[in-house]
Design goal:
heterodimer, A: alpha+beta, 25% strand, B: 781 residues, alpha+beta, seven-stranded mixed beta sheet, five-stranded mixed beta sheet, 19 helices, 28 strands
């Protein structure tokens, strides 16, 4: 479990990293927290001619808040979000999600940008930022681009991030003080990747009712039927639970992913519990 | 009991080096000029090797079986008639039989470069059908793992005692169940490792190995390498856990040692975690089809068993592949008074990693089978499972009790451990609580697992099993130094058991020496008399007995010298607190040590100089000291998700005289943690091509700190009548009952849903499937 040989470049700034990525047949890889990439390299399940380390790039560690949004640099760690060391657009949802990612040792190094760029189907941030309707900021030699989260995730480990481009930051709309959210995650044990996780966000002042599901075999899903229910739901009861399970089931069918009965049961329950928390 | 002797809660001597990160494991040993090796392992389960292409520039750095033609393979032949034997080559010869089998060694200055080299070797495999499922392996159309055998059956043993047919005739209740314990890995914190070099000064081959039994490894390794034992030194340095998987002759030990014989520099192999999950002996994988014939109270009149064990591709030395099935059949009746018993136990070869001993060896499976069956009987006769257990259990007045399979339960009160466990877990309150719903919609259930643990079995037992080595004794040297310190040299190997402390406590019991002033030397064939190693819950009994005996004999001499120096009669002299007392006069062990080692003129007339005793110990009765326990667990099941949470866990345990309760409790809790792994998390499933589906910790789950509850350990103490100090072993026990107790508790919780689950690990997916199956059955009805 040692990696095959590779070159290493420690980038000074984003432009330097972009220059370094050029060539290599698109096989150069960006190293941020390394919590997924390094084990993959060690197992020789991935290889690269060049690692471009961006953890020294100050710009990527910043966070900014304005009236409408919070922008988090790609190299902001899970631990920084957990500890409230960066601005929080979500009134507590993001720190709570962060606290639940893997183990503290991983959170100390793992970054939100790395998690988004890898797009592991069981990862927390992909689902969270889909539910928060974030925008992914990308830079490459051809300039800067903004990609809405809804367009970013194409499948398991597949994103709209162009080759030789760098995910630099995430711009996240701020929730109002009246916003409510719910989060439910199922994993085999503490620190494991989720087998199912759902996030529900309700912010009536902004007309927001979003529900996102992860832990499937593909990209995180928005659940349209569940969201319509959530926007009308003001209290939780058994009837709401039944309607919600039916809506979730309809959404899973609509996804065309061929979920079997057990997956429908599992995801249906996590969605229900996330929505219940958001409403209760 | 003295303040620091047997029974005292003494802090461990080894804590200082381990807790300060100064342990010396295989990875910490640096020998100048050492090169690292990695093994190229088969990526396929079953194939003929057509060719192995080694790049021209890699010649002399890559080695296959062709380079070691004089080396003998591992050959472990069972004693049972009809045993089909096979060779387990250190490097594949002509064919590979499991994914992970070592095919070649690659050597380089660093491990990364060795792995680069491995990637450049091309092996042409002609794939053969994999043999994956043990029951399918016995079908006539299954591929053969070993061509020379008639089929894939290694051996089948039969037991037929009493009269099962007559019992079936009069029984009013008949219960049949199929219970499965699936395959997993051992996963000690430190993987395996071997470092070998020619030691020119002593003209010997030095082999460091992360092993549980260095002396025995020297014997068999010398045989495989074709060298004299005196020219081989085997050292087990600090070993980071073994759990049985380091208690086999490893193919990698042979390969690395053979390589070092042909080189002029040291070589080292450190197993990584992926190799461990693929290539190190696996654990468990038992299937039981059990039928109980009982009366209306649930008293078992007869028991019938069909046991199958998937032993994987090869037979491990010295245990053989037949050990698991044989032991499972031999111990299946558990702590119960069952006189009519018929069993067939099949050991089956598949194209999977060889199966080997793992903490609890076979008993974890047997306990799972019989304890699940008892709960099923209780369900059938409508009684509390606790009461059905009490109905069947061997009573204290029956002790000593010879089982139907000729095991001798030496002492104890088995029903009392069960009653105390029921009280401690709060059975009556749990039953009341189950009458109403849980506020969160979850279900709760309580389960019990009872077992006996044969420990420190000696000559008779190992002879009966027909092993190539009879692990009947342990040895010890006790040596008093001129400054009053004591050195103990023992043939066992301490890899987490705290033996550097508990053996020192035994010395304190005999000599009054402070355990902190005792150095326990072990794990090195050059450092101590021949000994068998640490496994089978034997070291405290065996090495404890040997140390006690050596110190007792040494103490007699110390007393004679002390009496002479104190001008007293030997009968007046007492040893305590590092001194010899006679009335109000005393003399220190240091003064006695100085007299014995440096000043013969101070000795009594006729007394030889020297303060050193070498001796061995074997228990008075070699059929084993039987520890026993009841585990009781309260679980919560979320029926929507299938998740299981342990709310409370109680162990009521009797291992006779306890030398150090802190260490005993640590052993028990550690065993329970591993048993929780078997019950809920650990599994290596295979696909239909024989590919293991859990080969990294991404897919292989271990219980962590958050998954292991605060286990409440309650002690009973019934000293063994047959061992020194009445000690019984306890190393494995904690890992025996958790799968049984937890599965019983989960099934108890699922009872309102009519769902049942008889397979480990009880993963959320399996729990959900059981609930869905029950619901589908109900809707059909």
């Amino acid at each position: 479990m040692k990696p095959a040989p590779f070159d290493y470049h420690r980038a000074r700034d984003v432009d330097d990293a972009i220059v370094a990525l050029r060539g290599h047949d698109g096989m150069a890889r960006i190293l941020a927290g390394g919590q997924s990439l390094v084990p993959m390299l060690n197992l020789r399940l991935a290889s690269t001619p060049l690692l471009v380390d961006i953890t020294d790039v100050e710009e990527l560690k910043h966070s900014d808040r304005n009236d409408a949004t919070v922008t988090l640099g790609a190299c902001v760690t899970h631990a920084a979000i957990e500890d409230g060391r960066v601005a929080d657009p979500s009134h507590g949802l993001m720190p709570r999600i962060a606290r639940d990612i893997a183990y503290r040792a991983i959170r100390n190094r793992g970054t939100i940008g790395g998690s988004m760029a890898l797009a592991d189907p069981a990862a927390e941030w992909t689902v969270t930022l889909l539910a928060l309707d974030a925008v992914i900021l990308v830079r490459s030699e051809s300039g800067a681009r903004d990609i809405p989260a809804a367009d970013f995730f194409l499948g398991a480990y597949t994103t709209a991030l162009p080759e030789e481009a760098i995910l630099t930051a995430l711009r996240i709309p701020q929730l109002t003080r009246a916003a409510r959210f719910g989060f439910y995650k199922v994993c085999r044990k503490t620190g494991e990747f989720a087998t199912s996780l759902a996030i529900a966000v309700s912010d009536p002042e902004r007309g927001v009712a979003r529900v996102a599901l992860g832990g499937t075999s593909g990209a995180p899903l928005r659940l349209a039927a569940v969201e319509r229910l959530l926007s009308d739901l003001d209290r939780w009861d058994d009837r709401a639970a039944d309607k919600l399970r039916a809506a979730a089931d309809a959404d899973l069918t609509a996804s065309g992913r061929g979920f079997d009965a057990d997956a429908r049961q599992l995801h249906g329950i996590t969605v229900m519990r996330a929505v219940r928390e958001a409403v209760s | 009991m003295t303040e620091l002797g047997i029974g005292a809660r003494v802090l461990r001597n080894e804590d200082d080096r381990f807790l300060n990160g100064r342990g010396q494991f295989l990875g910490d040993i640096h020998v100048p000029g050492c090169q690292e090796v990695c093994f190229l392992r088969s990526p396929v389960a079953h194939a003929r090797i057509i060719s192995i292409e080694i790049p021209e520039d890699a010649q002399g750095r890559v080695f296959t079986a062709e380079h070691f033609t004089t080396i003998k393979p591992i050959r472990a032949v069972g004693a049972a008639p009809g045993f089909n034997s096979s060779d387990y080559p250190p490097l594949s010869v002509g064919k590979v039989r499991f994914a992970g089998e070592p095919v070649a060694i690659c050597m380089a200055p660093t491990r990364a470069e060795a792995e680069d080299l491995a990637q450049r070797i091309f092996v042409d495999y002609e794939e053969l059908s994999a043999v994956v499922d043990m029951d399918a392996a016995l079908q006539s159309d299954a591929a053969k793992v070993h061509e020379s055998w008639p089929d894939n059956l290694v051996v089948e043993i039969m037991i037929d005692e009493g009269d099962v047919d007559a019992a079936a005739e009069i029984a009013t209740v008949r219960v049949t169940g199929e219970y499965r314990l699936n395959r997993h890995a051992g996963v000690p914190l430190e993987g395996r490792g071997v470092l070998a070099y020619k030691g020119h000064r002593m003209n010997e081959l030095v082999v460091y190995s992360s092993t549980q039994f260095p002396h025995v490894i020297r014997t068999i390794l010398a045989d495989c390498l074709g060298i004299e034992e005196r020219l081989l030194r085997v050292v087990a340095p600090d070993v980071g856990g073994g759990f049985g998987v380091k208690n086999n002759l490893q193919p990698e030990e042979i390969a690395v040692a053979a390589l070092a014989m042909n080189l002029d520099h040291p070589v080292r192999w450190l197993e990584d975690r992926r190799e461990h999950l693929l290539g190190c002996a696996h654990a468990r994988e038992h299937r039981y089809r059990l039928t109980a014939y009982a009366d209306e109270r649930g008293k078992i009149l007869g028991l019938e068993a069909h046991i199958r064990v998937d032993a994987g591709a090869y037979s491990v030395w010295p245990w053989t592949s037949a050990m698991e099935a044989g032991m499972a059949a031999g111990i299946l009746v558990g702590p119960y008074d069952i006189r009519n018993y018929r069993a067939r136990a099949k050991t089956i070869a598949t194209t999977k990693t060889p199966l080997g001993p793992y903490r609890g060896v076979a008993r974890t499976g047997a306990c799972f089978g019989i304890e699940r069956l008892i709960d099923d009987i209780a369900g059938k006769v409508g009684r509390e499972p606790l009461d059905v257990r009490l109905e069947n259990m061997v009573k204290p007045e029956q002790m000593p009790y010879g089982t139907v399979t000729d095991k001798l339960f030496d002492s104890g009160d088995y029903p009392e451990s069960l009653r105390r466990a029921a009280t401690a877990i709060g059975l009556e309150d749990i039953r009341k609580r189950q009458d109403g719903p849980e506020p969160d919609g979850c279900l709760i259930g309580v389960g019990f697992g009872c077992y006996t643990e044969q420990t420190a079995h000696g000559t008779d037992e190992w002879v009966a099993r027909g092993l190539p080595v009879v692990f009947g004794y342990e040895s010890a040297v006790a040596r008093l130094l001129p400054d009053g310190g004591l050195i103990l040299e023992v043939g066992i190997q301490n890899h987490g058991q705290g033996l550097e402390t508990t053996l020192a406590q035994v010395a304190n019991e005999e000599l009054g020496v402070d355990p902190a002033k005792v150095a326990v030397r072990h794990g090195d064939s050059a450092l101590s008399p021949y000994g068998m190693g640490t496994f089978a819950s034997r070291s405290m009994v065996m090495a404890g007995g040997a140390v006690g005996r050596a110190c007792g004999l040494l103490g007699e001499k110390i007393i004679r010298i002390a009496a002479h120096l104190l001008r007293a009669e030997p009968a007046e002299v007492q040893l305590r607190d590092g001194q010899a007392f006679a009335g109000n006069r005393s003399i220190s062990l240091a003064e006695i040590g100085a007299a014995g080692c440096l000043h013969p003129e101070r000795l009594p007339p006729g007394e030889d100089p020297g303060l050193e005793v070498t001796t061995v110990y074997q228990p008075a009765l070699s059929s084993g000291a039987f520890s026993y326990a009841t585990h009781a667990v309260l679980v919560q099941v979320d029926p929507d998700l299938g998740t299981v949470k342990i709310l409370d866990y109680v162990v009521v345990h009797d291992c006779g005289t306890i030398v150090n309760p802190m260490i005993a409790e640590g052993q028990i809790v550690g065993g329970v943690a591993q048993g929780i792994g078997t019950a809920l998390y650990e599994e290596i499933p295979y696909d239909e091509n024989g590919q293991p589906l859990a080969s990294t910790f991404m897919d292989y789950l271990l219980p962590g700190a958050t998954e292991v509850p605060d286990v409440r350990v309650l002690h009973m103490n019934t000293p063994s009548p047959h061992t020194a100090y009445g000690i019984k072993g306890l190393g494995e026990g904690g890992a025996i009952a958790p799968p049984a107790a937890i599965a019983n508790a989960v099934n108890d919780a699922l009872r309102p849903l009519h769902a049942r689950l008889d397979e480990t690990p009880l993963s959320p997916k399996r729990v959900r499937a059981a609930i869905a199956t029950a619901a589908a059955g109900a809707s059909k009805r």
